[in-house]
Protein backbone atom coordinates (compact mmCIF):
# COMPACT_ATOMS: atom_id res chain seq x y z
CA UNK A 1 0.00 0.00 0.00
CA UNK A 2 1.38 3.40 -1.03
CA UNK A 3 0.54 6.31 1.28
CA UNK A 4 0.57 9.92 0.26
CA UNK A 5 -0.21 12.67 2.77
CA UNK A 6 -1.25 15.79 0.93
CA UNK A 7 -1.09 19.23 2.52
CA UNK A 8 -4.77 19.92 1.95
CA UNK A 9 -7.89 18.85 0.07
CA UNK A 10 -6.82 20.67 -3.08
CA UNK A 11 -3.46 18.91 -3.19
CA UNK A 12 -5.09 15.52 -2.53
CA UNK A 13 -7.46 16.17 -5.43
CA UNK A 14 -4.70 17.28 -7.76
CA UNK A 15 -2.58 14.20 -7.03
CA UNK A 16 -5.57 11.89 -7.51
CA UNK A 17 -6.50 13.52 -10.82
CA UNK A 18 -2.87 13.27 -12.02
CA UNK A 19 -2.76 9.56 -11.23
CA UNK A 20 -6.08 8.98 -13.07
CA UNK A 21 -4.89 11.07 -16.03
CA UNK A 22 -1.65 9.07 -16.27
CA UNK A 23 -3.61 5.81 -16.38
CA UNK A 24 -5.89 7.17 -19.14
CA UNK A 25 -2.86 8.28 -21.15
CA UNK A 26 -1.35 4.79 -20.82
CA UNK A 27 -4.64 3.08 -21.71
CA UNK A 28 -7.15 5.36 -23.48
CA UNK A 29 -9.92 2.72 -23.13
CA UNK A 30 -9.37 2.51 -19.36
CA UNK A 31 -12.19 0.91 -17.36
CA UNK A 32 -12.56 3.46 -14.58
CA UNK A 33 -14.49 2.74 -11.39
CA UNK A 34 -15.99 5.93 -9.96
CA UNK A 35 -17.14 7.00 -6.51
CA UNK A 36 -19.48 9.68 -5.19
CA UNK A 37 -19.68 11.65 -1.93
CA UNK A 38 -17.92 14.89 -1.05
CA UNK A 39 -14.39 13.49 -1.19
CA UNK A 40 -13.91 13.02 -4.96
CA UNK A 41 -15.56 16.34 -5.96
CA UNK A 42 -12.20 18.13 -6.19
CA UNK A 43 -10.75 15.26 -8.23
CA UNK A 44 -13.63 15.56 -10.71
CA UNK A 45 -13.06 19.32 -10.90
CA UNK A 46 -9.38 18.74 -11.71
CA UNK A 47 -10.20 16.13 -14.36
CA UNK A 48 -12.74 18.50 -15.95
CA UNK A 49 -10.10 21.24 -15.99
CA UNK A 50 -7.57 18.95 -17.70
CA UNK A 51 -10.19 18.00 -20.30
CA UNK A 52 -11.12 21.65 -20.96
CA UNK A 53 -7.45 22.54 -21.36
CA UNK A 54 -7.18 19.81 -24.00
CA UNK A 55 -4.85 17.69 -21.87
CA UNK A 56 -7.13 14.68 -21.38
CA UNK A 57 -9.46 12.71 -23.62
CA UNK A 58 -12.23 10.54 -22.19
CA UNK A 59 -13.69 9.48 -25.55
CA UNK A 60 -12.73 5.83 -25.11
CA UNK A 61 -12.90 5.61 -21.30
CA UNK A 62 -15.49 3.22 -19.86
CA UNK A 63 -16.92 4.12 -16.44
CA UNK A 64 -18.67 2.08 -13.77
CA UNK A 65 -20.02 3.75 -10.64
CA UNK A 66 -19.89 1.96 -7.33
CA UNK A 67 -23.42 2.46 -6.13
CA UNK A 68 -26.84 4.12 -6.24
CA UNK A 69 -29.57 4.75 -3.68
CA UNK A 70 -32.46 2.35 -3.99
CA UNK A 71 -35.65 4.02 -5.13
CA UNK A 72 -34.12 7.28 -6.40
CA UNK A 73 -34.65 7.96 -10.10
CA UNK A 74 -31.75 9.28 -12.22
CA UNK A 75 -33.29 12.76 -12.41
CA UNK A 76 -33.65 13.02 -8.62
CA UNK A 77 -31.07 15.67 -7.58
CA UNK A 78 -30.10 13.48 -4.60
CA UNK A 79 -29.33 10.43 -6.74
CA UNK A 80 -25.79 9.43 -7.62
CA UNK A 81 -26.80 9.51 -11.30
CA UNK A 82 -27.58 13.19 -10.94
CA UNK A 83 -24.38 13.84 -8.96
CA UNK A 84 -22.22 12.16 -11.61
CA UNK A 85 -23.69 14.09 -14.55
CA UNK A 86 -23.68 17.39 -12.74
CA UNK A 87 -20.15 17.10 -11.35
CA UNK A 88 -18.41 15.19 -14.11
CA UNK A 89 -20.11 13.63 -17.13
CA UNK A 90 -21.80 16.87 -18.30
CA UNK A 91 -18.39 18.54 -18.55
CA UNK A 92 -16.19 15.92 -20.24
CA UNK A 93 -16.39 13.73 -23.35
CA UNK A 94 -17.18 10.34 -21.81
CA UNK A 95 -19.60 8.77 -24.30
CA UNK A 96 -23.09 8.21 -22.85
CA UNK A 97 -22.99 4.55 -23.90
CA UNK A 98 -19.76 4.08 -21.91
CA UNK A 99 -21.30 5.30 -18.62
CA UNK A 100 -22.58 2.68 -16.20
CA UNK A 101 -24.37 3.37 -12.90
CA UNK A 102 -26.60 0.85 -11.09
CA UNK A 103 -30.29 1.59 -11.68
CA UNK A 104 -31.88 2.35 -8.31
CA UNK A 105 -35.34 2.06 -9.81
CA UNK A 106 -34.93 -1.35 -11.50
CA UNK A 107 -38.07 -3.39 -10.77
CA UNK A 108 -36.00 -6.56 -10.30
CA UNK A 109 -32.95 -5.66 -8.21
CA UNK A 110 -31.39 -9.12 -8.38
CA UNK A 111 -31.58 -9.04 -12.15
CA UNK A 112 -30.13 -5.51 -12.22
CA UNK A 113 -27.27 -6.63 -9.95
CA UNK A 114 -26.50 -9.61 -12.18
CA UNK A 115 -26.67 -7.42 -15.28
CA UNK A 116 -24.26 -4.91 -13.72
CA UNK A 117 -21.69 -7.58 -12.83
CA UNK A 118 -21.99 -9.05 -16.34
CA UNK A 119 -21.29 -5.64 -17.88
CA UNK A 120 -18.20 -5.16 -15.70
CA UNK A 121 -16.98 -8.62 -16.71
CA UNK A 122 -17.66 -7.91 -20.38
CA UNK A 123 -15.14 -5.06 -20.22
CA UNK A 124 -12.57 -7.24 -18.46
CA UNK A 125 -13.08 -5.83 -14.94
CA UNK A 126 -12.13 -2.45 -13.49
CA UNK A 127 -8.65 -1.14 -14.35
CA UNK A 128 -8.59 1.72 -11.85
CA UNK A 129 -11.06 2.04 -8.99
CA UNK A 130 -11.48 5.40 -7.26
CA UNK A 131 -12.77 5.04 -3.69
CA UNK A 132 -13.82 7.20 -0.78
CA UNK A 133 -14.36 5.75 2.68
CA UNK A 134 -17.30 6.00 5.07
CA UNK A 135 -16.73 7.06 8.69
CA UNK A 136 -17.52 3.44 9.58
CA UNK A 137 -15.03 2.03 7.07
CA UNK A 138 -17.49 1.25 4.30
CA UNK A 139 -16.37 1.28 0.68
CA UNK A 140 -19.04 1.73 -1.96
CA UNK A 141 -21.99 0.83 0.24
CA UNK A 142 -20.38 -2.34 1.60
CA UNK A 143 -21.28 -1.79 5.21
CA UNK A 144 -19.63 -3.36 8.30
CA UNK A 145 -21.21 -6.66 9.31
CA UNK A 146 -20.65 -10.36 9.95
CA UNK A 147 -20.03 -10.97 6.28
CA UNK A 148 -19.33 -9.02 3.14
CA UNK A 149 -20.80 -9.90 -0.24
CA UNK A 150 -18.62 -10.28 -3.31
CA UNK A 151 -21.15 -9.41 -6.04
CA UNK A 152 -23.39 -6.42 -6.71
CA UNK A 153 -26.34 -6.44 -4.33
CA UNK A 154 -29.04 -4.51 -2.53
CA UNK A 155 -27.91 -3.52 0.95
CA UNK A 156 -29.26 -1.84 4.07
CA UNK A 157 -27.41 1.33 4.95
CA UNK A 158 -25.78 1.37 8.38
CA UNK A 159 -27.01 3.91 10.97
CA UNK A 160 -23.64 5.75 10.77
CA UNK A 161 -24.06 6.09 7.03
CA UNK A 162 -27.61 7.40 7.33
CA UNK A 163 -26.36 10.02 9.80
CA UNK A 164 -23.34 10.97 7.66
CA UNK A 165 -25.37 11.26 4.46
CA UNK A 166 -28.32 13.14 6.00
CA UNK A 167 -26.53 16.37 4.99
CA UNK A 168 -27.40 15.65 1.36
CA UNK A 169 -31.08 15.06 2.14
CA UNK A 170 -32.15 17.76 4.59
CA UNK A 171 -33.00 15.25 7.32
CA UNK A 172 -32.06 11.71 8.26
CA UNK A 173 -35.64 10.54 7.61
CA UNK A 174 -35.28 11.43 3.94
CA UNK A 175 -32.17 9.25 3.39
CA UNK A 176 -33.07 6.06 1.51
CA UNK A 177 -32.62 3.02 3.76
CA UNK A 178 -31.19 0.87 0.98
CA UNK A 179 -28.77 1.08 -1.91
CA UNK A 180 -27.42 -1.05 -4.74
CA UNK A 181 -23.66 -1.42 -4.46
CA UNK A 182 -20.96 -3.37 -6.22
CA UNK A 183 -19.56 -6.01 -3.90
CA UNK A 184 -16.14 -6.41 -2.33
CA UNK A 185 -15.22 -8.89 -5.09
CA UNK A 186 -15.57 -6.28 -7.84
CA UNK A 187 -13.52 -3.78 -5.84
CA UNK A 188 -10.79 -6.27 -4.94
CA UNK A 189 -10.51 -7.47 -8.54
CA UNK A 190 -9.75 -3.94 -9.74
CA UNK A 191 -6.21 -3.86 -11.07
CA UNK A 192 -5.39 -0.63 -9.28
CA UNK A 193 -7.16 1.17 -6.44
CA UNK A 194 -7.00 4.80 -5.38
CA UNK A 195 -8.50 5.52 -1.94
CA UNK A 196 -9.09 9.14 -0.94
CA UNK A 197 -9.78 10.42 2.56
CA UNK A 198 -10.20 14.01 3.60
CA UNK A 199 -11.14 15.94 6.71
CA UNK A 200 -10.92 15.34 10.48
CA UNK A 201 -14.03 13.13 10.51
CA UNK A 202 -12.03 10.48 8.59
CA UNK A 203 -8.98 10.59 10.90
CA UNK A 204 -10.16 7.83 13.29
CA UNK A 205 -11.11 5.33 10.60
CA UNK A 206 -7.90 5.98 8.64
CA UNK A 207 -5.78 5.38 11.75
CA UNK A 208 -7.68 2.16 12.44
CA UNK A 209 -7.33 1.01 8.84
CA UNK A 210 -3.65 1.80 8.41
CA UNK A 211 -2.25 0.97 11.81
CA UNK A 212 -4.01 -2.25 12.68
CA UNK A 213 -2.54 -4.72 10.19
CA UNK A 214 -5.74 -6.74 10.49
CA UNK A 215 -8.59 -7.55 8.15
CA UNK A 216 -12.15 -7.57 9.45
CA UNK A 217 -15.65 -7.49 7.97
CA UNK A 218 -16.28 -4.87 10.69
CA UNK A 219 -14.06 -2.53 8.65
CA UNK A 220 -14.79 -3.32 5.00
CA UNK A 221 -11.96 -1.07 3.78
CA UNK A 222 -9.47 -3.25 5.71
CA UNK A 223 -9.68 -5.78 2.86
CA UNK A 224 -7.71 -3.29 0.80
CA UNK A 225 -4.69 -4.31 2.90
CA UNK A 226 -4.75 -7.55 0.89
CA UNK A 227 -4.69 -5.85 -2.50
CA UNK A 228 -1.44 -5.56 -4.45
CA UNK A 229 -1.83 -2.09 -5.85
CA UNK A 230 -3.55 0.42 -3.56
CA UNK A 231 -2.59 4.07 -3.28
CA UNK A 232 -4.08 5.96 -0.35
CA UNK A 233 -4.11 9.74 -0.57
CA UNK A 234 -5.15 11.58 2.60
CA UNK A 235 -5.11 15.23 3.41
CA UNK A 236 -3.38 16.35 6.63
CA UNK A 237 -6.61 16.34 8.64
CA UNK A 238 -7.50 12.76 7.70
CA UNK A 239 -3.92 11.65 8.47
CA UNK A 240 -3.73 13.37 11.86
CA UNK A 241 -4.33 10.42 14.21
CA UNK A 242 -2.41 7.96 12.04
CA UNK A 243 0.64 10.22 11.92
CA UNK A 244 0.76 10.42 15.68
CA UNK A 245 0.51 6.67 16.12
CA UNK A 246 2.22 5.18 13.13
CA UNK A 247 4.98 2.72 13.81
CA UNK A 248 6.37 2.57 10.28
CA UNK A 249 5.48 5.97 9.06
CA UNK A 250 8.80 6.88 7.43
CA UNK A 251 8.95 3.73 5.36
CA UNK A 252 5.35 3.89 4.24
CA UNK A 253 4.80 7.46 3.21
CA UNK A 254 5.67 8.76 -0.25
CA UNK A 255 6.31 12.47 -0.47
CA UNK A 256 3.39 14.34 -2.07
CA UNK A 257 5.91 16.28 -4.17
CA UNK A 258 6.68 13.09 -6.14
CA UNK A 259 3.24 13.32 -7.71
C1 LIG B 1 -20.96 7.42 0.55
C2 LIG B 1 -20.65 6.55 -0.69
C3 LIG B 1 -19.23 6.10 -0.67
C4 LIG B 1 -18.37 7.26 -0.19
C5 LIG B 1 -18.62 7.48 1.27
C6 LIG B 1 -17.94 8.69 1.86
O1 LIG B 1 -22.10 7.07 1.23
N1 LIG B 1 -21.49 5.43 -0.91
O2 LIG B 1 -18.85 5.66 -1.97
O3 LIG B 1 -17.02 6.97 -0.35
O4 LIG B 1 -19.99 7.41 1.57
O5 LIG B 1 -18.57 9.87 1.49
P1 LIG B 1 -17.93 11.30 1.67
O6 LIG B 1 -16.87 11.40 0.64
O7 LIG B 1 -19.06 12.26 1.39
O8 LIG B 1 -17.41 11.38 3.04
UniProtKB/TrEMBL annotation:
CDD domains: GlcN6P_deaminase
InterPro entries hit by this protein: Glc/Gal-6P_isomerase (IPR006148), Glucosamine6P_isomerase (IPR004547), Glucosamine6P_isomerase_CS (IPR018321), NagB/RpiA_transferase-like (IPR037171)
Keyword Plastid: no
Enzymatic reactions: alpha-D-glucosamine 6-phosphate + H2O = beta-D-fructose 6-phosphate + NH4(+)
A cellular component annotation (GO) from this entry: cytoplasm
PROSITE patterns: GLC_GALNAC_ISOMERASE
UniProt keyword annotation of Hydrolase present: yes
Enzyme Commission number(s) of this protein: 3.5.99.6
Alphabetical keyword list: Carbohydrate metabolism, Hydrolase
Domain Glucosamine/galactosamine-6-phosphate isomerase: residue ranges: 12-225
BP GO terms, sorted: carbohydrate metabolic process; glucosamine catabolic process; N-acetylglucosamine catabolic process; N-acetylneuraminate catabolic process
GO MF annotation terms: glucosamine-6-phosphate deaminase activity; identical protein binding
Pathway it works in: Amino-sugar metabolism; N-acetylneuraminate degradation; D-fructose 6-phosphate from N-acetylneuraminate: step 5/5
Active site: 67, 136, 138, 143
Top-level enzyme category: hydrolase
Task performed by this protein: Catalyzes the reversible isomerization-deamination of glucosamine 6-phosphate (GlcN6P) to form fructose 6-phosphate (Fru6P) and ammonium ion.
Recorded family membership: Belongs to the glucosamine/galactosamine-6-phosphate isomerase family. NagB subfamily.
HAMAP family: GlcN6P_deamin
Protein name as it appears in the record: Glucosamine-6-phosphate deaminase
Organism whose genome encodes this protein: Thermosediminibacter litoriperuensis
Gene: nagB
Amino acid sequence: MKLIIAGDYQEMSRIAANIIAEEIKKKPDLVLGLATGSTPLGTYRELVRMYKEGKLDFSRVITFNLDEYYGLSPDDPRSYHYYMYRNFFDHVNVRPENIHIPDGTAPDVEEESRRYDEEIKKFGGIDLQLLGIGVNGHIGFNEPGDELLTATHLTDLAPDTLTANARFFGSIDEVPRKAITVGLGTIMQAKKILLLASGPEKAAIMAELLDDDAVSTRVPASFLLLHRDVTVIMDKDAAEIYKNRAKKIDAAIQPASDF
